[in-house]
Amino acid sequence: MTEAAGREFEYRVRVPYAHTDQMGVVYYANYLVYFEMARAAMLREVGLPYGELEKQGLALPVIEASCLYKHPARYDDEVRVASRCLLAGPRLRVDYVLTCGQTLVATGFTVHACVAPGGKVVRPPPLLCRLTAP
After folding, report:
1. Which of 4, 106, 113, 127 could form a disulfide with 98 if both were Cys (CB 3.0 to 4.6 A apart)?
2. 90 lies in a domain?
3. Domain presence at residue 19
């Protein structure tokens, strides 16, 4: 994770059977779903639910995503998703570390553009600084 990032947020998800593949492990694309779930919880925790941001005319589309898989998570595992946010210019980067107990499951990040109505890329508004404040 980026050292310059602010506070760490935590989200926990219990792996449902529907998220596993034929081998009984979490299907690789579902890790990106866990990123999204953690990101939405992070926004809610600082009083900025995504729906409220949209009402204010701000969208945060994903423009880059990466996930490095270290160890499989399985059905009914409780996965902890730690996330940190960094604001840089017109972009927002969220880093993620997924663990199951003491086992590192995956690491990754998403990068988001801050987009105003009409698709214009803008600098993140000051209210998004709530994500990086310790």
Report:
1. 106
2. yes
3. yes
Kindly list the strands in the beta sheet with 103-113, ordered across the sheet, starting from the edge strand earlier in the chain. 9-14, 78-88, 91-100, 103-113, 62-69
- The answer as to whether 38 is a domain residue is yes
Task: Classify 71 as helix, strand or coil.
Answer: coil
Residue 115, token pair as written in the block: 């987009």
Predicted TM-score (pTM) of the model is 0.91
Q: Which are the contacts of 49, defined by CB distance < 8 A and separation ≥ 6?
A: 40, 43
pLDDT level of residue 87 (50, 70, 90 thresholds): confident
CATH number of the domain within which 38 lies: 3.10.129.10
* Number of domains within the chain: 1
Angle of CA points 21, 22, 24, to nearest 5°:
70
Q: What is the pLDDT of residues 110-124, one digit of tens each?
A: 999 999 988 899 888
Residue 3 falls within a domain, yes or no?
Answer: no
Q: Which domain holds residue 105?
A: 9-131
